[in-house]
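User: I'm preparing a small set of examples for a lab meeting where we compare how different chains pack in three dimensions. I only have the primary sequence for this one, and I'd like the structure in token form so I can line it up with the others. Please keep the answer compact; I'll paste it straight into my notes.
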Amino acid sequence: MTVFQFRLQAVLDQRTEDKQQAINLLAARERELAVEQRTMKELEGEVQRAEERYQRKRAERFALGVHEGSTFSKRSDLLNGLRLDVQAAQAGVLSQQVFVDQATDLIREAQLALKERQREVDVLEKYRQKTEKRFLQEAAYREELEQDEIGNVMHISRRARA
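Assistant: Understood. Below is the structure token output for the 162-residue chain.
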């Protein structure tokens, strides 16, 4: 009996390999997004710390009571510097958000590519299954015909002897 051989097996193998590459790409994109999100959390923590430091120094400036002009001026300069630090940290968070958004878009693209590769593999796999089923049915039919022919020959040979 002959063995089923799918004539598009090379194409199916290539599509399966492409699908695996799409899976690997998606996993890499997800790792990149995780790194970007971790960086974003760190930057948000820096904003929080800078904001707390600014608020603490601002409260201290008014809590000390009587101020000399130069001390007050130095504290005001310090507060201005701390406010600039807060703004710089917030700007860092905003710029990091762009990277997070880009990584999210890349994941979306990788997911779409994976779905397409999966669909291509599924189509070929379904075709292979139908082809194999048809092959097995034809093989069974040929086997049945052979058995009928053998039975007919045996019957005819017995009748001829009798």
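A couple of notes for your slides: The chain has a mean pLDDT of 90. Helices lie at 9-63, 69-161.

User: Perfect, thanks.
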